[in-house]
Structure formats: structure tokens, C-alpha cells
Amino acid sequence: MMIAFAKRFLLAPLMVAVVASACQNPAHNTNDNLQLSLEFVDKQLADAVTQIKVLADSVPTDRLPRTFQGDSSVFSNTSWWTSGFYPGSLLYLYEYSGDEELLELAKDKLSILEKEKYNKGTHDLGFMLYCSFGNALRLTGDTAAYREILLTGAESLITRYNPTVKAIRSWEGWTYPVIIDNMMNLEFLTQASKLSGDSKYRDIAVTHANTTMVNHYRPDYSSYHVIDYNPEDGSIVGRKTAQGAFDESAWARGQAWGLYGYVMMFRETGDKAYLEFAEHVAAFLLNHPNMPDDLVPYWDFDAPGLSAESPYAAHYKTNRDASAAAIMASALIELSTFTEGAEGDEYLHSAERILEGLSAAPYKAELGTNGGFILKYSVGSIPHNSEIDVPLTYADYYYIEALMRYRRLLDGKPVVG
Fold it and tell me: 248, CA 20 to 30 Å: which among 113, 200, 296, 368?
């Protein structure tokens, strides 16, 4: 399906100077632009409250929910990269409902998650700590409880930054791998600078974002999954994938991570290079010939065209990824507020279409089923034969976040509280 804005293929010149003050939300969307009703959004959020309480009944004290496969729940320890999404979802739903039980459930999980502030062995601390403790601080204002945790975690994260590569290392192994997912850590760092008054965190976020713009993206604004660097001189060793169909393919969730990250970077810096880049990425996604009508993408945009020789061709050509759609919806809602005219409306209406699709069968589970998860049919990693066509904790988190952002639009508020 084609969305009505022009495809753009040549990379724009990069603006590396960052505007000192963060941009203001133009909030050009009015209730006249919004096509989903408050009743619709509240119904989905109320159902999410019901589902997360079903999920809460099964979660062990020292574990966090990850997925539900067959008839069994799968949990993780606190060091797993998705550990922050469940408490983050509880906090968003507490914000919506005012239900103190949800806040207490979140605090119980924050108490076991806190030790990850010392974890220097992962790049995923933005997911683990900012989606959880960041939301807790935002909603409670309790700096005594949460400020030190977030700043200690930010210090742990920046130990993985190499000033020669000008990026934060993702994994061990390889040479110096940096994955597109790492864009999702940068909000954590920009907020750490606000909390501490120290610009070093924000400076690293800006540098990482600029490096990623130059090296991760192809001329059509699709992203590689992994760029492997030489840490001695910053040169590129290889452009690869770990979770996509092949090295040159467009792994769907990776494309969504990049879109979300650059929209956020514009909000936090006011640098229009990030806004223009996010618009290019959105155009790639929404105009892609393999994008389904409901805008819930295949697990890889190149999956439908896999040749018979591909190890994934026989079974995985048509798998959709609800998690990628949820991330896209949240990012597009915010992007719509920064973009005037028909293009901004198109971003908003695309997000609305995604939310409508995810809020109905086959993606939305019936209440009391699906192990208490909200969405079905997400994909973790097909190359690793892991978490295929199952609910995933981060799919629910970004779906809830998108609904909350949309609800703020309905209330005439900025989408990011």
C-alpha cells in the first residue's frame, strides 16, 4: 500500500550542531484531526488493566513476564533485556486508571530490578531502567527514591561508549557491534543530563545518534541491524543482521526502533536534522510495497520476497510482528505533532489505523486468555527460532504507550507527559 507522501532516496546532509534548547511540541493536531474516540481508547486501556491483572496473578515474586507460549508463561530474571517493560506497563496503566494496586505491583518489581543499575554488561539499560524507573519518577516525582538509580544506571551505560567509534557498544563478541536497537537508550541519557545537570550523557546520546545516521542507514532510509566497528580506529568491519532475513534486508522491528529514536532525538534537542531523518524513515516504512494494508508489518520487510534458498522461505514469509507495529504507532503519534499539514495528518492517521488493527482480532487477545498479555502475533527472532507468533512484553508496553499518547492528544496535551 502507498501512503500519500513522496519517497525520498538521498540522505540529507547531516546537521551535527545541536540546538541548545529542546523544541516545543507544535500540537497542530486538534480534535478535528483525531479519528479515534475517547470511548474507543478508554475501552482498550480498561481492557489492558483487566489483562495485566490476570498476568500479575501468575508472575513469581523474583521474576518478570516475558511471553506466553502454548499453555505456559515464560518469565525472565532482572538482567534480561525486557525486564523493564512489565513495571513500565503497570505504571502507564496506573497513570490511566489511578488504581493503586497497579502502582504497588510496579513498586514490587522495581525493588528487584534496582540492582541492574550496576549492570555494565548490557547496552539495554534504557529499556530496563528508563521504561520502569523513568516512568516511576515521572508519575510520582519521588526524586529521593529514583534519581540515584537512574543516574547510576546512566553511568553504567556510558562505560560502553567508545569515543573513537563514537557509539555505544551493544553486544560482546563480534568486534565492536552496534545495533539499531541502541537508539532506544538515548532518551535515558538525555534525561540523565536533565536530572544531573551534567551534559556528558546528552553529548553521548547526540554523538551516537549522529554516528548511526551516517553508518546504519542505506540510501532508501532502511537500516542495517548491526554495524560492526574496529574499536581502534572506528572503521566499519561489517554490516550485518542478527534477527533479520539477511544482511541487506529491512528487519521490521529495527526499522521501528530507528523511527522512534529519531523522533525522540528531535524532541530532546530541537535539531531539525533528526526530524527530517525521522520523516524519511517514516516514508520508507509507510510507502513500502510489502507493507500490509493494516500497517502491521511482516517480521522483515523483505520476507515476502524470500527465495526458495532462504532458510526462512518455507515457513516464515508471512509472519507479522505486532511489536514492530506498536512501536511504530507510538512514534508516529509523536511525529505527527512535529509535522504540519497533510504529512502530519498522514502520520497520525497511520498510527490510528495501526491502533484499530491491534485492538481487534486477530491481534488483540480475548480477556482472560493469552496468559494475561494483551497482544498476540509478535516475533522475537526468527533466525534464532525464538518467540515466533507469541505475545511479548514489549509489544504490550508500546501498545499501551501509544494509547496513552493518543489519549493525551484527545485531552489537548503534549503526547509526552
Answer: 296
Give 29's pLDDT tier (boundaries 50, 70, 90).
low
Q: Tell me how far CA of residue 310 lies from CA of 183, 307, 315, 383, 384, in angstroms.
A: 29, 6, 10, 11, 14
Indicate which residues carry an active-site annotation.
124, 181
Residue 402 · residue 374 · CB < 8 Å: no
Q: Which contacts of 276-280 are long-range, i.e. CB under 8 A and separated by 24 or more positions?
A: 276/12, 277/12, 277/213, 277/221, 278/331, 278/335, 279/335, 279/339, 279/343, 280/8, 280/11, 280/12, 280/221
Maximum separation of any 2 CA atoms in the chain, in Å: 58
| Mean pLDDT estimate for the chain | 93
pLDDT at 11: 38
- CA distance linking residue 45 with residue 401, whole number of Å: 10
Q: What would the mean pLDDT of 228-254 be, rounded to a whole number?
A: 98
* Interval 254-274: pLDDT, tens: 999 999 999 999 999 999 999
How many C-beta atoms lie closer than 10 Å to residue 289's C-beta? 9
Q: Answer yes or no: are the C-beta atoms of 224 and 239 closer than 8 Å.
A: yes
Tens of pLDDT along 401-413? Answer: 999 999 999 999 9
Indicate whether 4 pLDDT > 80.
no
CB–CB of 280/221 below 8 Å? yes
Question: 61-99 as b/e, with b when 16 or more CB fall inside 10 Å?
Answer: eebbbbbbeeeebbbbebebbbbbbbbbbbbbbbbbbeb
Domains belonging to the chain, first-starting first, are: 38-410 (1.50.10.10)
